[in-house]
Amino acid sequence: MPEATTAPPAAETPTPDGAAPPTPAPAATRLVLARHAVTAQTGPLLSGRLPGIPLSDEGRRQADRLAERLAGLPVAVVYASPIERTTETATAVAARHGLTVQPLEGVLEADYGDWAGQKLSELATTDLWKVVQRAPSRASFPGGESLAAMQARMVAALDAVVAAHPGELVVVVSHADPIKAAIAHYTGVHLDLFQRIMVSPASVNAFAFSAHGVALLKCNDTGSLEDLGPPPPAPAPASEEPS
Q1: pLDDT tens digit string along 59-109?
Q2: The model's pTM
Q3: What's the domain count of the chain?
């Protein structure tokens, strides 16, 4: 019986100068960081990680509008900080895509420790508040964590998500300070300047992670998100007619 032979691999079509065509770069992973919608405590109190703080009626409307904005995008997975206001916001988004929200501990709100649940107007009179505003990389909350530690675990969690979803569009619902800290990290801004970044409730902040690095696509965006979709396929080259 003759031995089976294996067909040689097809040769790559050379370019006009005889060189092999370049290998196409892998598709970028698009990361959408969305802040949760508002609660009854958003503004007057520092909610932190306190349980039992759901979205308000206005917050649910904001979450629905966010879900509508993301409905036309090819969302592969939705992650959320595992507390009520972020999970509720993420659930509205995930429902439009037939997905279940995946909890992600690393994107939790900063652990404000003894500050959690206090009025912002009272906290603003403390010496620590001045540090938080002017030199946040040096700020550490009594009974909680430092802002530098918060940034480190936020970035580590997002890097792991991006690595797990190459070429996909991923939504992560988190909180204002962690999102601001992530924006600062990926754009090369020192943490001491992160208070200059604004992240509104139910806003979108988007990045493209590619072989060339990270690009900020959206920041504190509340408008159209159509341009976050995949590019249209390139038209097929026209065939040459015989002369």
Answers
A1: 999 999 999 999 999 999 999 999 999 999 999 999 999 999 999 999 999
A2: 0.85
A3: 1
65 CB-contact burial (10 Å; exposed 0-12 / middle 13-18 / buried 19+): middle
CATH of the domain at 209: 3.40.50.1240
CA atoms of 93 and 99, how far apart (whole Å): 9
Residue 208 dihedral angles phi and psi, to the nearest 5°: -115, 120
- Residue 9 inside a domain? The answer is no
Residue 17 counted as domain residue = no
Q: Are 9 and 15 in contact (CB under 8 A)?
A: no
Q: 242 in a domain, yes or no?
A: no
Measured between alpha carbons, how far is residue 237 from residues 18, 27, 85, 185, 234 in Å? 20, 22, 50, 42, 9
**CA separation (Å) from 93 to 6, 130, 135, 230?**
50, 36, 35, 19
Question: How many alpha carbons lie under 13 Å from residue 115 in its C-beta half-sphere?
Answer: 25
Distance CA 98, CA 120 (A): 38
**Domain with 43 in it:** 29-222
Residue 14 domain flag: no
